[in-house]
């Protein structure tokens, strides 16, 4: 009796290509789905030096130093939040200007392609006449013409922030440049105090450092937001290092071309135009979630609102950013920050 044999299943090249295409699309959609889940779990886009965080880091990518238990930073703090019936001082928020609230360029040297890119992205901008510290040959003050781009959501951010915090502007820029600029973005005089370059100090490690002690404010209720973390090296526990803002990245989000390339889109989009409709919908949802998370309104404002309810902001900021360890990694010991 002849043995029964199982016939081999032979797939045509066309069928194999179709299966490969379906598999590529499924892998592509799965990667997008994972990115969305990560986004919902890590909405804050600010720097976090915690080793367990995978969120975006605007600071230089460094590994934290391993410290002995004897060197561990101790922060004395009361309850995490303030009881409802306990009065608390208003939060003081110190804001940097350039690359934090705005970005500015000399009009004569601003590339047309950069201006067009920012304009097409919907950035608000204006031109400004600034008095330079340089003198003309006749001894008259030199006038510089500057093009200023506002960070998305700037006006609304300042308005909402002023409802629960005292606002202080602290810039390393010269007053002849910064004062007329701030007059344009702060038409309602929301800043209770404006400080310029003469108010900064020089240290052994950096110049133009912003010493918060000059404000005579309670350090437990004072926060500084600056794209340059060295600005607050004297008070690292009070600093929030924000993502720098430039007209070259007008959408003010963490999504970049290199980020999209990590999804390996190019290898999937080349297959079967018939299948592009559904994946394109997922891609649109993915980009919509990320591209419209503005740094000021969607990231900084909720964090500052949370800090306004804390009796001491420093433990919260230390847990989130670990700035003392970051400065130590940059070669600035604790003695250099006092």
From TrEMBL:
Residues 86-266 form the FCP1 homology domain. It comes from Hevea brasiliensis (Para rubber tree). PANTHER family: DULLARD PROTEIN PHOSPHATASE. NCBIfam families: HIF-SF_euk. It comes from the Eukaryota. The keyword Transmembrane helix applies. The chain crosses the membrane at residues 268-294. Keywords: Membrane, Transmembrane, Transmembrane helix. This is FCP1 homology domain-containing protein. SUPFAM superfamilies: HAD-like (SSF56784).
């Amino acid at each position: 009796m002849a043995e029964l044999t199982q016939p081999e299943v032979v797939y045509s090249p066309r069928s194999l290509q179709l299966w490969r295409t379906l598999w590529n699309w499924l892998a592509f959609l799965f990667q997008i789905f994972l990115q969305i889940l990560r986004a919902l779990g890590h909405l804050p886009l600010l720097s976090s030096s915690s080793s367990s965080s995978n969120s975006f880091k605007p600071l230089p990518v460094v590994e934290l130093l391993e410290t002995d238990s004897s060197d561990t930073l101790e922060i004395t703090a009361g309850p995490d939040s303030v009881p409802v019936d306990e009065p608390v001082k208003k939060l003081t928020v110190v804001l940097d200007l350039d690359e934090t609230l705005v970005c500015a360029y000399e009009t004569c040297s601003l590339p047309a392609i950069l201006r067009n890119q920012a304009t097409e992205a919907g950035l608000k901008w204006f031109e400004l006449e600034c008095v330079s510290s340089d003198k003309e040959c006749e001894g008259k003050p030199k006038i510089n013409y500057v093009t200023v781009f506002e960070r998305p959501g700037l006006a609304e951010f300042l308005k909402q922030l002023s409802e629960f915090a005292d606002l202080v502007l602290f810039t390393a820029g010269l007053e002849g440049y910064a004062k007329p600029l701030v007059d344009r973005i702060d038409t309602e005089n929301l800043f209770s105090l404006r400080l310029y370059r003469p108010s900064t100090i020089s240290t052994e490690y950096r110049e133009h450092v912003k010493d918060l002690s000059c404000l005579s404010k309670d350090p437990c209720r004072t926060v500084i937001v600056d794209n340059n973390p060295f600005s607050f090296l004297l008070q690292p526990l009070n600093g929030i290092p924000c993502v720098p803002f430039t007209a070259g990245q007008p959408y003010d989000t963490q999504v970049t071309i290199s980020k999209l390339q990590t999804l390996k889109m190019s290898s999937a989009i080349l297959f079967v135009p018939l299948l592009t409709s559904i994946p394109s919908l997922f891609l649109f949802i993915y980009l919509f979630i990320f591209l419209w998370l503005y740094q000021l309104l969607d990231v900084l404002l909720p964090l500052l609102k949370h800090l306004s309810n804390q009796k001491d902001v420093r433990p919260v900021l230390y847990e989130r950013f670990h700035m003392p360890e970051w400065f130590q990694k940059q070669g600035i010991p604790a003695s250099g920050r006092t």
